[in-house]
Amino acid sequence: MSVLEVKNVKKRFGESEVLKGIDFKLEKGEVLAIIGSSGSGKTTLLRCINFLETPNEGEFYIESEKIFDAKDAGNLKEKTIRQNRLHFGLVFQSFNLFPQYSVLKNVTLAAELLEKEKLKAAKVSRTEMGIAFKRIEKHALELLDKVGLKEKKDAYPCELSGGQQQRVAIARALALNPDVLCFDEPTSALDPELTGEVLRVIKSLKDSGSTMIVVTHEMEFAKNVADHVIYMADGVIEEEGKPEDVFNNPKSEKLQNFLAKSLEEI
């Protein structure tokens, strides 16, 4: 059974059609890499999947359950959209950490807010709420340890390198136990020497069975870590397949030119 199924997703901004009908399935524990030139629609697709943009057409399914149909988008309540977002964790290009909070607080904040809302509705005692918050903190510390930053739990974002900030952002995205972890060019804001540490963390998540979508310009990473690769061009999936087929035997002329140019830039 697919964890995520995307059907015929289209997105327009005014007269500009950015996504022209995207279809794919993502299996549990699979890493999907999405590659393509700037303007091909990669980030827009990721933002639609994470409910930061609303598709004009299309459907999303989580484990065969329909969670979005563009035909009904006008009737979607904000609470439903928030619930749908919980299926996904998103790591942005530019970290987007809260500068006023410590590393630990950045990781626990969303989970604490959700738990507080739930426990208030259930009218539990302060003691029970305290126990729940301790559980959230324990989980956050485990995640920080997983990304190699447990010793930085009391530091603030301004005290961290770009690579460390991105690793905190990964821990934060994992804190809500999403079905699918999404990365939007996770190394594009990093110096080359810091890129490796972030890619190593993502690879370790694959090894532990995380299901991921990675929009990336790191061709070697996509080739060596992804289970499936999608090449997007002009708002469509131009070509897709196993990494060895996409990179070693590209059929589309657009993909051939893209890969040739990518190799020139290395």
Describe it for me?
The chain has 266 residues and is an alpha/beta fold. The mean pLDDT is 93. The two termini are 38 Å apart. Strand 9 and strand 10 form a beta hairpin. It has a six-stranded mixed sheet with strand order 6-7-8-3-9-10, with helices on both faces. The longest helix is centred in the middle third of the chain and has 21 residues.
Structural class: alpha/beta
Largest sheet: 6 strands, mixed
Mean pLDDT: 93
Instruction: Assign an overall shape.
Output: globular
Helical segment count = 9
- Beta-strand portion reads 15-25%
N→C terminal distance: 38 Å
Which short descriptors sum up this protein?
single chain, 266 residues, alpha/beta, six-stranded mixed sheet, four-stranded antiparallel sheet, 9 helices, 10 strands, globular
Tell me the layout of helices and strands:
Blueprint: E1 2-13, E2 16-27, E3 31-35, H1 42-49, E4 57-62, E5 65-69, H2 78-85, E6 88-91, H3 103-122, H4 126-146, H5 162-174, E7 180-184, H6 192-207, E8 212-215, H7 219-225, E9 228-233, E10 236-241, H8 243-248, H9 253-265
Parallel strand pairs: 3-8, 3-9, 6-7, 7-8
Antiparallel strand pairs: 1-2, 1-4, 4-5, 9-10
Helix pairs in contact: 3-4, 3-5, 4-5, 5-6
Précis, in short:
The protein has 9 helices and 10 strands.
